[in-house]
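The passage that follows is intended for readers who have already worked through the single-chain material. We present the inputs for a multi-component assembly, then the predicted structure in tokenized form, and finally a short commentary. You are encouraged to pause after the input and sketch how you expect the pieces to fit together before reading on.
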Amino acid sequence: MNSTAGKPVSHSKTTITELMIPSYANFGGKIHGGILLSLIDKVAYACASKHAGTYCVTVSIDNVEFLQPVEVGELVSLKASVNYVGRSSLIIGIKVISENVKLGSVKHTNTSYVTMVAKGEDERPTPVPPLIVETKDEIRRFVEALKRKELKLSFNEKMDETKDKLDINLAMDILKGQRCIVNLEV
Ligand SMILES: CC(C)(COP(=O)(O)OP(=O)(O)OC[C@H]1O[C@@H](n2cnc3c(N)ncnc32)[C@H](O)[C@@H]1OP(=O)(O)O)[C@@H](O)C(=O)NCCC(=O)NCCS
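Having made your guess, compare it with the prediction:
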């Protein structure tokens, strides 16, 4: 496939719907977060590989915050679309909703952003086609993804600086007032 020819967002839009069966539940009767994470990874792969036209790997899953519990018997739908592409990376935006068909209610459980990288036959990152954005929402999502990438980079740099400066004296200071019992042999 010619990787310089773009593909529109609509080409790879993917939705998966799955029934939440009892074996997906935890002891409290709610669906395990890990089940939803696995579905998020699956739909992200389907969407990314359709755009890339190659095998893709998951690099990171951001913003996984489950806003509301999912119950057994609900239908969970995951709507995925490519929000951003770099050279070999793609960011897939995934909206997860859960539907109770008997009550006719729908709840938004979370929105996540999965970074995938396209791999070639040699297992190395390989270029993906540019993304053709055709609506204001698609433009907004691309720019938001860029901003999120920049913020993540600066967060990681700040966190590295913080770790470099952290010694035992500073750590003991920070722990004052925390619900942490220090039991350190000196
Ligand atoms: C992700 C991976 C391909 C990066 O390999 P690499 O040799 O460092 O490749 P590069 O430096 O050329 O980076 C390739 C792309 O990944 C992106 N990338 C690398 N690490 C990243 C990270 N932590 N977060 C976001 N993007 C990342 C780079 O920005 C680059 O994007 P671009 O091509 O759009 O500019 C490699 O680390 C890998 O294969 N990881 C394992 C992934 C996997 O197996 N996942 C399944 C879960 S077990």
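Commentary: The longest helix spans residues 136-165. The helical segments are 9-12, 33-52, 136-165, 168-175. How closely did your sketch match?
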